[in-house]
Amino acid sequence: MAEASTQPSYSTREEVDFVIVGSGAAGGVMAKELSTAGFSVVVLEQGPHLKAADFKHDEWGYDVNKDLTWGARQGYPQTFRKSVDEETVTRESVLDYAHNVGGSSVHFSGNFWRFRPIDFMEASVRGPIAGTNFADWPISYDDLEPYYTKVDWEVGVSGLAGPWDPPRSREYPCPPMPVKSSDVLLERAAKKMGLTPYPAPVAILSQPHNGRPGCIHCGFCNGYGCEVNAKSSSMASMIPLALASGNCELRTGCTVSRVNTDENGRANEVLYWEEDGTEQAQLAKAVVLCANGAETPRLLLASESEQHPNGLANSSGVVGTNLMFNGYSTAVGLFDEPVNAHKSVPATRVLHDFYELDPSLGFYGGGGIDARHFSAGRPMNMALAGGLLGNGPTWGSEYKKNLQKEFTHTAAFDGHTTSLPLATNTVTLDPVLKDKWGRAAMRTTYSDHPDDIATMKFFYDKTMELLDVAGATKSVGFYAEDGQEGNVHLLGTCRMGNDPSTSVVDKFNRSHDVENLFMVDGSSLVTSGRGQPTMTIMALAFRAADNIIQFARRGEI
Amino acid sequence: MIDTQLSRRAFLRSASAAAKNSIIVLGLPAILVSCERSKQAILNNEEFSVLTEEEAQELHAVAARIIPTDETPGATEAGVIYFIDNVLNDKREAEHETLRIGLREIQIAAAQKFNVSYFHELEPEQQDQLLTEFENTEFFGTIRFLTIAGMFSLPEYGGNRDKVGYELIGFEDRHAWQPPYGFYDADYAQRGE
Fold first, then answer.
1. A242 to A14, A41, A113, A137: CA distances (angstroms)
2. How high is the ipTM of this complex?
3. Any idea which architecture A11-553 has in CATH?
4. Could you point out which of A39, A101, A448, B70 has its C-alpha 20 to 30 Å from the C-alpha of A273?
């Protein structure tokens, strides 16, 4: 491989400038930025380096066997409870994320909404919410805007600038995706209701950009890796540049167990297992954790020591708390003519008219609506749903007949909503269950705030109304009325803030406690946004990298 | 979105409404050809890796009621039993055990009710009657899941032969599409919206 030949091979016993743990949305950006700035970088990634040619339309492999995300089958069971008063139950998986170079940016849906100015200051605009840790960010939309634009152009985003869009300093590099039938139905219904649908921004190239090809509309985005590199994963967009720099060594199949500190309390060594179980320890001048909102707090908690008895970077006790998911609702409608929502990208229109719900409703919340295929275009999942509009038969000839129209003639209008930060929603180390390495398994304690559920219900009702206006002949919907018990958006567990007693990292993603340790991923988010966090995770990574480079050059790390 | 899908699945299962008008995807000659081929495969007794011949025969009969062959191909034509054998051999001893125990129970019920030793010896209506009684068991949940998975997963796992499952629901497994994708976006383009 050409890229392999440019990779350096650093000694584990010599300090590299940076060890980056995780190569996902944030880790890929960080690796590219730091290595092309001339720093020596080792990236440790648990999974393999899969490429476009390795991906298949393999529903059984990805959804059931969890070939990409891993779970109990691969030796990584997790536990769940709704509150500390409940017994934990062991699950195949609770917090779901990919184990491969590029992380979940490889198999995500690619919906790339920027956060809006309100997201960063909503607590002061709207006022505090009792019993929650709802707070302003220490940065504003304006602080992040240049980095959103960097993501647009360097990672590759398709969309259409307009008055509906948050303020931007530059156009999108690629035009929006061609509209799908499901989105035509949404757009027409929304306009009839006086709403403002607009082309959905997606991290999928509508035309060639930065040497990568445009989308071929195969329809296997959500849950699958892109077979042509049109999806702007960090694997497709960032990692190749990091490897071409000649400064970045990407070590795959490496599972990090612990970050050690020296006598001054500085992070100096990252311990990990190679695939065959060999233990390694990489020395580093600085450590950047980009392991995601579940793995980053877990690693900090597992790195406790005499100097850091609550876990590394956790003098506040905040590490692992404030876990946020984003809420979700769906409304599925049957239409007379073929919709074929399984073709092309998940969504091509979005509605942000309900981004901020009216406080007079009596609860906090907001979100966005888009149109999709109800099983993300997956035949097996569609069939397992048991005859979407069917009256109960889940097997037999009647069931089989119901399936025949539902795959091609349905559209799902989905709500993507806010999630409040709560001290009681946490990622912690399970005291009993172990994973294949003998580490404490990840334990999730989580209950949606009542306002989160009320918000999901609002979006459920609104999307059912939209389906009706769109002319659906039958419809059926869902939201988690009893609260969610797992998710793929893993946010808030090392929140950013100015106050070291209530936050884990400062506004440059630097640990308040350990000056050469940075946490850069979904864990930094102070609020949840409205359901599509990856764009913001990548923008934060570009911003953190920019600052880290300046700190390093000034000798301030 | 595993958990939301599961909850959604549970919800949808209990949802009420009925779809009408099936679409006949295959013409009759095509069905006959694929039925014939599949019958031969069972008769030729392609090797099973973990299922005994009896288990294969019985589970095959159950799968054929879950997705029956009617105007369109079903579990039989898709070779679902070979998929099941294949994935049970892939770290799924627990599921295999569930199926074994369930089969024994269903055979006992077949003997008590209809005085036959094997499920596959029953008439389709009798089979449906028994399966309805077993609907809420772990056995049925497992075999239903595996049957549907075998119908709609990639053929390389042993089922969905000739992609009959995909064809059934109107899914064409292609690597590239161009707009228009469906009726409404074609109409949208035509009207210049």
1. 20, 9, 25, 30
2. 0.94
3. 3-Layer(bba) Sandwich (3.50)
4. A39
